[in-house]
């Protein structure tokens, strides 16, 4: 056996040459994300990446948000799901532009998919693009889409310990929304435990308790979102 | 299962960097222990994705750099077996300095 690499044929091993590469495997996604960031900045549009488990209430929150902030912020939406155009149809019913991305067997959005969707979406200057990622607490956190902020949603029915169980997702959050708090009277859910679980992996992200259907705590979320939009007279995202 | 996406990128990146007429016999990777990429599914996907390419049959050598961080409160360098481990001073405000690598370091061709 070859003493250098352990292969069975020392003559072939002698002919082998090693090429140094030092290249990040996700470099191409990062390049697409940079392209998206530049494309958005040139249009004074900012993008927010919303991530959660399936069923945490992302689409419902967006429906309420789009209507509530319509006078001050124009929202446009990229919807990520494995299949069906259902969520984009729900968003269009609010009057906002929406493009559905179906990932098929894919479990997350990647920057190139979002780049194509942005061009189809054609958001107007000053808009905020809300990117609803595929419902999944693992994979989406690894892929930069070119967004300026990441929001992670957790519904109260998921339990207090999700942030510690899925630390990769929660550590990249700029904001954590605790959703469906109107259900708290029916659950044994400790909000302080949840906030403590977030702090173990993310010392700085604010945690906002909200209910879209009961209109609870939404003013702070709308304020955060308005702060993301580009002012009409300056260039570049905030 | 983002390891499939990672593996597709890996195979494509190597294939585009080596001449078409060479066979890749070994790919050396660094997959950090805090990268969120698991080596076992990556190896499983690699054999499938590499089939029929210049990487077909190549061996994967995977180094797994440990998690490291620097405490933002006291400045200490910290070993991080996971993302939940605090600094010795009790702080969870730790900036990652190692363990997030997902990198191709070298390929062997003949």
Explain this structure:
Chain A: One of its GO terms (biological process) is protein maturation. Chain A: This is Hydrogenase accessory protein HypB. The complex is a heterodimer of chains A (238) and B (110). Chain A is of the alpha/beta class and 238 residues long. Chain A contains nine helices and eight strands. Chain A has one domain: Rossmann fold (3-Layer(aba) Sandwich). Chain A has a seven-stranded parallel beta sheet with strand order 4-3-5-2-6-7-8, with helices on both faces. In chain A, α2 packs parallel to α5. Chain B has a three-stranded mixed beta sheet, with no helix packed on it. Chain B has a three-stranded antiparallel beta sheet with strand order 4-3-5, with no helix packed on it. In chain B, β1, α2 and β2 form a beta-alpha-beta unit. Classes of the chains: A alpha/beta (238), B alpha+beta (110). β1 of chain A pairs antiparallel with β6 of chain B, so a sheet runs across the interface.
Task: Break the fold down into its secondary structure elements and pairings.
The complex is a heterodimer of chains A (238) and B (110).
Chain A: H1 10-15, E1 17-24, H2 27-42, E2 46-51, H3 58-68, E3 75-81, H4 86-92, E4 97-102, H5 111-121, E5 128-132, E6 149-155, H6 162-165, H7 167-171, E7 175-179, H8 191-201, E8 207-209, H9 218-228
Parallel strand pairs in A: 2-5, 2-6, 3-4, 3-5, 6-7, 7-8
Chain B: H1 2-17, E1 24-31, H2 39-50, E2 59-63, E3 67-71, E4 77-80, E5 94-98, E6 102-109
Parallel strand pairs in B: 1-2
Antiparallel strand pairs in B: 1-6, 3-4, 3-5
């Amino acid at each position: 056996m070859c003493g250098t690499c352990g292969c069975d044929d020392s003559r072939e091993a002698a002919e082998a040459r090693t090429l140094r590469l030092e290249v990040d495997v996700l470099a191409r996604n990062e390049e697409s994300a940079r392209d998206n960031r530049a494309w958005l900045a040139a249009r004074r549009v900012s993008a927010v990446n919303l991530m959660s488990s399936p069923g945490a209430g992302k689409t419902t929150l967006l429906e309420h948000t789009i209507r509530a902030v319509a006078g001050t912020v124009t929202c446009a939406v990229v919807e990520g799901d494995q299949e069906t155009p259902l969520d984009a149809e729900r968003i269009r019913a609010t009057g906002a532009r929406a493009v559905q991305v179906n990932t098929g067997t894919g479990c997350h959005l990647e920057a190139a998919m979002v780049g194509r969707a942005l061009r189809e979406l054609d958001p107007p200057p000053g808009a905020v693009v809300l990117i609803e990622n595929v419902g999944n607490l693992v994979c989406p956190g690894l892929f930069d889409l070119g967004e300026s902020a990441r929001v992670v949603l957790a519904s109260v029915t998921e339990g207090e310990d999700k942030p510690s169980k899925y630390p990769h997702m929660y550590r990249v959050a700029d904001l954590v929304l605790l959703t469906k708090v109107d259900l708290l009277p029916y659950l044994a859910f400790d909000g302080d435990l949840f906030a403590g679980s977030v702090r173990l992996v993310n010392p700085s992200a604010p945690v906002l308790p909200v209910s879209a259907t009961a209109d609870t705590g939404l003013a702070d979320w709308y304020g955060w979102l308005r702060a993301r939009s580009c002012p009409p007279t300056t260039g570049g995202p905030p | 299962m983002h390891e499939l996406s990672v593996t597709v990128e890996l195979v494509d990146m190597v294939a585009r960097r080596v001449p078409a007429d060479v066979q890749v016999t070994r790919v050396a990777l660094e997959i950090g222990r805090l990268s969120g990429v698991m080596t076992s599914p990556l190896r499983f996907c690699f054999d499938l994705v590499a089939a029929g390419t210049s990487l077909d049959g190549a061996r994967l050598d995977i180094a797994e750099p440990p998690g490291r961080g620097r405490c933002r409160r006291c400045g200490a360098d910290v070993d991080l077996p996971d993302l939940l481990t605090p600094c010795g001073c009790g702080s969870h405000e730790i900036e990652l300095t190692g363990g997030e690598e997902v990198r191709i370091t070298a390929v062997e061709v003949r």
